[in-house]
């Protein structure tokens, strides 16, 4: 239905985010998003390591 998101669409989304949250809060939001992604990757990696250990009898 929708094609890939291009540069004009990304700029419009960024403009809307700036209007909603304000330019001062963007680094704070980005930092929180980065921490969330990092935690998710670590938990997925730990889960895969646990699966390879073989807790099976």
Strand content: under 5%
Summarize the helix and strand pattern as letters.
Answer: HH
> How many strand segments?
0
State the end-to-end CA separation. Answer: 47 Å
What is the SS-derived class?
A: mainly alpha
Q: What is the tally of helical segments?
A: 2
Give the averaged pLDDT, no decimals.
84
Tell me the Rg in angstroms.
19 Å
Please give the share of residues in helix. over 70%
The biggest sheet amounts to:
none
Question: What spatial form do the alpha-carbon principal axes imply?
Answer: elongated
Low-confidence stretches: none
What does this structure look like?
The protein is an all-alpha fold and 57 residues long. The protein is 75% helix and 0% strand. It is built from two helices and no strands. The longest helix is centred in the C-terminal third of the chain and has 28 residues, at 26-53. It is elongated.
Short summary:
With 57 residues, this protein is mainly α.
Structure characteristics:
57 residues, 2 helices, 0% strand, mainly alpha, elongated
Question: What order do the helices and strands come in, and which of them pair?
Answer:
Elements: H1 7-21, H2 26-53
